[in-house]
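Structure tokens please, single chain.
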Amino acid sequence: MAYHIEQVANTNDKCGEAPTWDAANNRVLWVDNESSFVHALSLDTGQVTRISTGLMVSGVALNTKGGYVFAGATGLHVWRGQDDYRTVISEFAGESLYFNDILADPSGRVYAGTLYWGGNGMEKFGKLYLVKPDGSAEIVDEGIELSNGLGFSPENRTLYYTDSFARRIYAYDVDTASGRLSNRRVFVQVPSDEGLPDGLTVDAEGFVWSAQWYGGQVVRYDPQGKVERRIAMPMMQVSSCLFGGPNLTDLYVTTAANSWEGPYAPPGYNFKAANIGGPLYRVRLDIQGKPDYAADL
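Here you go.
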């Protein structure tokens, strides 16, 4: 199957991540977390603006009280403009919180995964936190090697959560009243000859779309975890994906230009390839996504 794939922003992101559809402003947000930039692409004008600099951001969510929720190396923040943000939580039980991807739930709570990665590899396991509107938090899972993409099934009773280094996407049962998780199981175990599962999104039919770092593709899995299709992308370090546009039928895909060398790549991977990454792409589809929820922080 041929896909219409277009480059919509040549921002040369060192590590593009966290695409977010802002329907109210008809724009797509995404980050370059290595450069501490947050970009916005206006669908009205086609212009790209840099709306935040200096704050390291890895995860983004809309916020019902205005602005956005930004998550990153210094915790979880409610952001309203350049240098105008309030920190909601930056530590828990004496541990500094380095967040990666986040996801708001229907009650305005935020799931946020932590990671601790240094020059010598994983320093300690990460956890998945549930942050409530009053700023309190609890741990809902732990023992995660590299926290990444999060998404809900259409009925919100299943949460998908990526552990990139374990090459797994987990599925959990969700108690919608409390937000607590149970019955963790492996939804997908990605083979070692493919890329690492990274950011993900879920469409209106309940299929999971997973970006593959090192894999140069986005993979769509059916609700049983079987591969339904693969979309080959022009760049190898494909980092995340999200549906946007007026009908939620455009898949926005982030990539990363800094070649991340390490033992997790598939056999034969070329770390010096010319097409490592950097731009933001859009894939036109006849499949509809579903809107993400907004936080209430």
